[in-house]
Amino acid sequence: MEETLIIYDDIFLDHLTGPEHPENPDRLRAILKGLRKFKLLENPKIKLERSRKAVMDEICLVHSEKYVDFIEEFCRKGGGILGTWGGGVVCSRRSFEVACYAVGGALKAVDEVLNGKYRNSIALIRPPGHHASIELPYGFCIFNNVAIAAKYLMDVKGVAKVAILDVDAHHGNGTQEVFEETSKVLYVSFHQDRIFPGTGSIEDVGRGEGEGFKINFPLPPYSNEEVYLKALNEMVDPILDQFKPAYILVSAGFDAHHLDPLTGLGLSSLGYVEIYKWIRETAERLTGGKFSAVLEGGYDHEALEKAVPSVVAAMAGLTIEVDDPPQKMPENLKNAALRVLEKVGKTMANYWTL
Ligand SMILES: [Zn+2]
Fold first, then answer.
1. What is the pLDDT of residues 194-214, one digit of tens each?
2. What is the 3-state secondary structure (H, E, C) of 144-158?
3. Which of 3, 104, 169, 309 could be bridged to 52 by S-S, CB 3.0 to 4.6 A?
4. CATH number (domain holding residue 263)
5. Which pTM value belongs to this model?
């Protein structure tokens, strides 16, 4: 078995949002530059494969056919900006096609791990997905790649339960909405409090059968790896042990990096490595090592060039030397972060043994 599969395709550069837009093709160019710089694409433990196009039935595991048709038609006519929320979602003529390949990339990433070819995988795709809900494009997202991958795992591949760990700096409102009422998907999100999209409070624990299966950590600015690791080890660990997922998906945002221009969290490349080592070890324990990461946000190119290769190396069990040390957190904000963790713990103790 190979270690780590990277899904990437040049088609992802064809979703054009304009030169001033933070979610632009240069993000992926920066990531590729970093992967080449650290010679990861030549490493025998890592393979890069192209994406595939998702079909209507697959996209409709989450979205309505009406919505998919609408996006196709809108792009065919030349595209434009959809909605006004968060600046709207920019679509170019080829965006529908690209978005279908983004979904397909996430699905191929899980397929190649499920069939035993790789231990884990990362889909370096765009547009991102976790803000898109069933019939609404939102926050740079058209189709919810990670939610579709989770539904695909369960409905098509017969996987019983899926855990989604969302480490993007923004709350994955779309993902939470899709799985709000199910106990088959455990959704855990770390995000900065009081920024876009404004959802993901500690009290948003899911509804009906899904109550207690949605775990939100709305963190203060400057929150660093110390905070993330404490939450992962002390809370997410025991909850996952009790939930027993058969597969782990990661909404792999890199905008929690301290250099990110849109947000104020404080992860370093080394912090990302620690988090992905934790995920690798947790997957080893619970899913036979199986997990897939799906790219979400991340808008500083230097951060992408360093943090993504660091993560890919960690996924493959390798170490690379990156000059991006952990950042110090102001004492008052650290205390605020610890209070958030404590409150999440108290809330989750209603549903899990902690
Ligand atoms: Zn984000």
1. 999 999 999 999 999 999 999
2. CHHHHHHHHHHHHCC
3. 104
4. 3.40.800.20
5. 0.98
